[in-house]
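Moderator note: this is an archived Q&A kept for reference. The question asked for a predicted structure of one protein chain; the sequence and the answer are reproduced below.
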Amino acid sequence: AGGRKSGTVTSIAPRAVGRVLPTLNEDGSRLWIRPKPAYGRWWKRRRALAYALMAVYLAIPHLRLGGKPLILLDAPRRHFTIFGYTFLPTDTALFMLFLGIVIVAIFLLTALFGRVWCGWGCPQTVWMEFLFRPLERLIEGGRTGSLAIDRSRNHLHPRRLLKFAVYGVISLLLGHTFLAYFVGVDQLRVWVTRSPLEHPASFAVMAVTSALVFADFAYFREQVCTIACLYGRWQSALLDSSSLVVAYDYRRGEPRARGLKPRPEGAGDCIDCGNCITTCPTGIDIRNGLQMECIHCTQCIDACDAVMDRIGRPRGLIRYTSLDELAGKRRRLWRPRTIAYPVVLAVFVGVFTQQLVAKPAADIVVLRGPGAPYTIEPDGRVLNHVRVKVTNRSARRATYRIAIEGVEEATVVAPPLPLIAEPGQSSEVSLFILLPERQFSGGRRDIVVVVRDDEQLDARIAWTLFGPQSRGIEPQNEKAR
């Protein structure tokens, strides 16, 4: 809507009363968050863990376990190696069990410790708070320098352009590392030394990933947590009143009294300094209670503890606690969800382990050949076409011998054997089995397909051959009923 005054259009767009989101101004424009770091005990612990996680992320593509990459997600071949074990397309159940273990573990972790993942382990928090923002403060002249550039609205400021250039280099490093998780460092090393025109698809993946990393840490930043990420919206279902959260002790802090002297009679410990707000990477006020935008990063704890030390009050006005403890109740460790989640997790882990241990060194599939189930040869014998597919699950090149048991008069026509398969590869052979008609009873004959390797594999698969119902039927290319 708009109104006309003296020949000009004046906007009468509605204006919010107060801030709707911590990253928005009242007029709906973007409020850039430039948090002031609080270098306390929790920050030092998070920094040590963050640097360790960064090193792990960069090192994993270079590590091997049992002759295999530690993690290699080979999507084109559908081979997913995780901690040295390769999930093949036939491992759908195993892979789903693995994902179930991860999901239930996250549920249990959240029920016990709140959003500890967001504040301590999430890549968004780790890279943003311990690499990209520290570089921003270093290049732009601290928080004061960043705010000055924001106020000047000079998007071509030399310091900001330098920051973006550094961000671009780091984004390329992270993009190449991300690609290494899917193709391996050996293949990546080859591609890096060649023209992108020789591998356009992989180059596009790397370029898009690097661009997304740059856009995330240079522009979207905390909005990924407050708008895009679903985890914060799940917390109402995953948390309960006994879950560990970062919270403000309102019983001790209220009523607030700004300043140190004179302190009104009955005033709480909170001096309304605002340090807990200026240090928050998502821009919230922790004193307003549990909020979706809170990532439990503990910056407000360190900031408040420093203030309490200066004014001679006990630490812990903002601390790790639970809603029950804030209300004067006892925090309950054992409750329905903290009992149910470990039980479900134990079941998933048990079934997954059993299935993993029981997995043979090769997956063997016996299939019927295309076309008619059997044919009658000129000499009167019945011919069945059988395909045997072997997938090598081991980390070595394997040689497989195939035999037919269960009938003495069988003649097997096959390509040269044994069958050879590389690690993680599948090989297939067609067997043409000839049997006299008298070997069939009711049009069927049971046999056993035996597959052996040079190690311990001795697989025996029961199989049924088809034949004519009786001698009175002329069964050339006849389909079995």
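Archived answer notes: The radius of gyration is 33 Å.
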